[in-house]
Amino acid sequence: MPVRKRSVTIAGHRTSFSVEDEFFVLLKRAADEDSRSLASLIAEIDETRPRDSNLSSALRLYVLAAALKGRLPEA
User: Fold this and answer.
1) Low-confidence residues of the chain, pLDDT below 70?
2) What is the DSSP pairing of strand 13-20 with strand 3-10?
3) What is the pLDDT of residue 41?
4) What is the DSSP string of 7-73?
5) In angstroms, rounded to a whole number, what is the distance separating the alpha carbons of residues 11 and 18?
6) Cα–Cα distance between 10 and 23 in angstroms, integer?
7) How many Cβ atoms sit within 10 Å of the Cβ of residue 30?
8) Taking burial as the number of CB atoms within 10 A of a residue's CB, which of 4, 19, 32, 52 is the most buried?
9) pTM for the complete prediction?
10) What is the spatial distance between Cα 68 and Cα 63, in angstroms, rounded to a whole number?
11) Of 48, 33, 44, 34, nearest in space to 8 by CA
């Protein structure tokens, strides 16, 4: 499971995060399920994460929480 660095534009600026492909696929599915862009979902997660955590960790925790709640479709 390689960790890949990816970039996205949120709030008018580029930012990067590093997650495994499996987490990235599930993030995209979560965005699709909500009929929104991936950038929009990431921006919301970024805005609501604790300031002492990093974006990559917040994205992984979002996917975990969504999976535990049964919000993500199966692969």
Assistant:
1) 73-75
2) antiparallel
3) 97
4) EEEETTEEEEEEEEHHHHHHHHHHHHHTTS-HHHHHHHHHHHS-TTS-HHHHHHHHHHHHHHTT-SP
5) 19
6) 19
7) 21
8) 19
9) 0.89
10) 9
11) 44
